[in-house]
Amino acid sequence: MHQRTLGSQGLKVSAMGLGCMGMSEFYGPRDETESIATIHRALELGITFFDTSDIYGPQTNEVLVGKALRPHRDKVVIATKFGIVRDPDGARHGISGRPEYVRQACDASLKRLGISTIDLYYQHRIDPNTPIEDTVGAMAELVKEGKVRYLGLSEASVQTIRRAHAVHPITALQTEYSLWSRDPEEEIIPTLCELGIGFVPYSPLGRGFLTGQIKSPSDLAPGDWRAGAPRFQGENFQKNLALVEKIKQLAARKGCTPSQLALAWVLAQGSDFAPIPGTKRRKYLEENAAAEGISLSPADLAEIDAIAPRGVAAGERYSEGGMRAVNI
What we know:
alpha/beta
């Protein structure tokens, strides 16, 4: 797999990363053996960019990722996040960007991952009660101490990105982006290009909906977080199925799967875009990785734009509470 450069500070990652969240929580049952095998298969396919967070599990996903990658530490880029405060039992305590919490969270993540330096450290959600200058100032101290190499933000507004970047260079912004979540194109992506910040789209397969594998809400496993997401409910679900059907038809003409078409489209949007589709199974990982080899012509891209213009998805991407925590 080709490498891409995130941001203007020199961080090189595989063109496509692996989101590891679903290996520990949110998307149905866990299978640690298959998850570790999936991470190792990713390495074989040339994927070197792995994404986790201290809240996944909670906390157990970092342990899993660290266990799988420790023997390969010199070959990989490990990204993790802080900011959403959760107890080990799953209880949530809001969002914190307080400087003392930044240091505490980093030390805990390093211990769970079993590494001495985090390659890319994101603020997972912006704390509206702590000036971003204070949070990024604390993150910058971690860089000086060698505990972190590069800094990132997740789901931040243009104003926050600019203020943060003025304190310390931000290497990457992570936010949701896919054929059914194109809002970043309006302001976020142009700002990243202006400032020399890389883009890490998460959920580039629309939380699995764009794969065409989910045909009914009953296809979701018990406890799957998506069952409560607006786009997976009621009339929204049926309207979004119609979109997926159009994507499937175009993919069939291109000789690829809907997943591969959706990922190839994201990869084509920018040379410093490094999407992180998540999976906990090797067969889907292999399917996703093959998307890098799919070339989309200008005519293909125009047809996709017609099928999936900005705002095409029915329903918000998060519940009302979740939406209040993004684009701050």
